[in-house]
Each structure stands twice: as C-alpha cells, then as structure tokens.
Write a structure and sequence with these properties.
The protein is about 65% helix and about 0% strand. It is an all-alpha fold. It has a two-stranded antiparallel sheet.
C-alpha cells in the first residue's frame, strides 16, 4: 500500500471516518437548559450560603488577626471598587436621595449595624447571630409600621411574630439563670443590630434606586466613616500586620459575598421565584448557620438552640406570608408593607434588604424594575408586616 493511501480505522478508512464525524456533528443535539425556576433556586441557595457565612464570620472575627475596623473596610470598600463604573453612572440618582431615607439606610446597615453584629457575635455564637439578627427583623419592622399608623398584624402574620419572640426567649433563657453577662450583653447587642436592620429595610422602601444604586448608597458613606474613624484612632486597625489568609477570607466573605453578591443574587432569585417563595427558602439560613458552625467553628448546638432556632425560622416563614385581599376589587398583589404593588416591584426591592448584604431584605443584580408601590387608600386598613429575608 502506498504512503498516500489511507489506513483502515474500525473497518473504515480515515477519510470515511472524517465524513461520518462531520455528519454526526451536523445532527442537532439537545442542549441542557435550566428552567428559570431552577436558576432562581440556585441563586437563592447561594444567597442563603452567603448569609450563613456572614454569621459564621461574625463569630470567627474574634479568632482572626483582623480587627472589626479591618473587616468593615473590606465589607464596604470592595463593593465600591467593583461597582465604581456603575455607581458613577448613577451619581445623579444617588445625589437626589433625600437625607432622611439615606440616614436610615446608612445607620441601619452601615457602620453601626456592622459593629453591633460583630461585637454581639464575639460574645455569643454563630447560631445567635444567624437567628436573632434576621429573625427579629419582621417584628421590629412591624413595630415601626404600627408606630406609623399602619395597624396591628393579624392572622398568620401575628402568629409568626409571636413564634419569633418565643424562639428568641427560648434561645437566651438558659443564660438568664444563672446570669451570663457576656452572652446576655451579646444577645442584647444582636437585638440592636436587628433593630437597625429593620430601619434599613424601611429606608429602602423610601428610595427609588435599583439594587446597584442601593449598594452604593450604603457602602460609600459607610466606607468614608469607617476610614475616618480608623485614621483618627477611634477604631484601631491591624490590616498591615494581619495574616494574608485572614484578609483573603474576609475579602471574599464580607466584601464580595455579603457586600456584593448576596444582594444581587437575592433580587435575581426573587424575580425568578417570587418574593413569598424566596422568603420561605431564605428563612432556612439560621438552620444553615447552626449546621455549618458544627464543622467550621466546632460549635455544638445546645438544647436552647435546637428549640429556639426552629421556632424563629417558622415564625419568619409565617410573618412573611403574603396577606390576601378580602374582595375581588382589592385583588391586586400587595407588598409586605401592605401596599399594593405592580408585578416585579416587590421582587426588585426585596433583594436590597436581605441581612446583611446590601441586602433586602429589599438588594441585587442589575437594575430592577422601577415600579413604585401605589399609595395606600384610606379604606386599606390591613395591617402590614415587612417581608424580610433571613440572614445572613
């Protein structure tokens, strides 16, 4: 056989094999396409993981070479660097935000919230951070709504709020007698952090910003504040001498995870799954924190945790259930605040308030619909409970 001849391959010549291969490639093959619900669920599970990582990092900070100011610089600085071009395009919208809502957002999820969560976590456990901070938000938001004349919650929402309160009492009761000063002080600080987050949630409803703009509104002044406090020595910093591994860990968890991805992913998940469905799955984050703290931090769940965390989780699920209109005339969908909403409005804002990211629970990816809630009418006296995702 000459050198130019083709050698057989599986009974066919190489040239014939090439022809067959081209024919096979020409046959259309079905592509693996995930449904929007599957993609949304994946985004939501990632969000829950980030929220859990926040609680774990709050506890782990005391054992790292970083100080609270260092973690805060990473938390608020990294999103500013990543989103700098997008925030520059939104500079006019950011400048137009009224001082009142801006103050609620910056105080509610900025430096005061961050330091309170970190300090409370250093005195308690990851389970306390993961359950108390996000768990108490619906109760605090409801109190703020009642103070503004929205009426008392009723039905499953009121049941959920009662379960949350009972769960928190069960969580801390064993440390009341005998009195454990550190744990009780830490628990009280975490309650303050939760109340601040509720203020943040209310403030987000008063601004007309997409999730990226909300992240910028929170992170820019917060970074400036923490940087000034560190420069004048009010808050010590040890970033220059910190271990590279600790810096990288908190950069990923706090800066990229909590500061950036959690908010964007949560809003994306809400737009795919709906706010009510997403809030139910998001309510599982305290459970995820308890489970992850066992191998990662060596924390063993106490009987109080095993009783309190499920009660808080169930309470958040019930408190976040969407109330139904009593009549067909009032059949429009409603937001968790009790105000009628156009399709997509609840989903867009819910991502921005999620603890503790830019997070919803009203924080997220790309601009979301700008539809604003319709004003409440005088006849709409239905009580309102904020739909708030669980922590991070």
């Amino acid at each position: 056989m000459s050198g130019t001849a083709c050698t057989p391959v599986d009974g066919r010549t190489e040239r014939e094999g090439a022809v067959v291969a081209r024919e096979i490639r020409a046959v259309p093959h079905p592509r693996l396409r995930l449904s929007p619900q599957a993609v949304g669920m994946a985004a939501l599970l990632l969000t829950v993981s980030v929220w859990a990582a926040f609680a774990l990092s709050a506890r782990a900070l005391s054992a790292s070479t970083l100080l609270p100011a260092d973690a805060a610089l990473l938390r608020f600085g990294v999103p500013l660097v990543v989103l700098a071009p997008a925030l520059w395009r939104r500079r006019h919208a950011l400048a137009a935000v009224r001082p009142g809502p801006a103050a609620k957002i910056v105080c509610g999820a900025g430096v005061p919230f961050f330091l309170a969560a970190m300090f409370g976590g250093s005195l308690t456990s990851a389970a306390f951070v993961g359950a108390i901070v996000p768990g108490m938000v619906p109760l605090f938001v409801s109190a703020l709504m009642v103070a503004r004349g929205r009426g008392l919650p009723r039905g499953t929402q009121s049941t959920g709020l009662v379960l949350i309160a009972v769960g928190v009492v069960a969580l801390v009761s064993r440390y009341a007698v005998p009195f454990d000063t550190d744990v009780m002080l830490g628990s009280g600080t975490l309650l303050v952090a939760s109340g601040l987050w509720a203020l943040y949630t209310v403030g987000l409803r008063e601004v007309d910003l997409d999730p990226v703009g909300s992240i910028g509104l929170l992170c820019l002044p917060s970074f400036v504040i923490i940087a000034l406090l560190a420069l004048i020595g009010v808050l010590p910093t040890g970033m220059a001498h910190a271990a590279a591994g600790d810096v990288l860990l908190f950069l990923v968890v706090q800066g990229l995870g909590v500061g950036l991805c959690a908010g964007l992913l949560y809003a994306f998940a809400i737009r795919r799954l709906g706010a009510e469905r997403a809030s139910v799955v998001g309510s599982l984050s305290p459970v995820a924190v308890v489970l992850l703290a066992i191998p990662l931090l060596g924390e063993r769940p106490t009987p109080a945790v095993l009783v309190g965390v499920p009660l808080i989780t169930a309470g958040v699920v019930l408190a976040n259930r969407k109330p139904r209109r009593a009549t067909a005339a009032d059949g429009a969908d409603t937001t968790s605040a009790g105000t009628p909403a156009r399709s997509g409005e609840a989903s867009a804002r819910a991502g921005e308030a999620s603890p503790p990211a830019a997070a919803p629970p009203a924080s997220a990816t790309g601009p979301s619909p700008r539809a604003l809630p319709s004003p409440r009418t005088a006849s709409d006296s239905r009580p309102a409970v904020a739909k708030v995702p669980t922590d991070a």
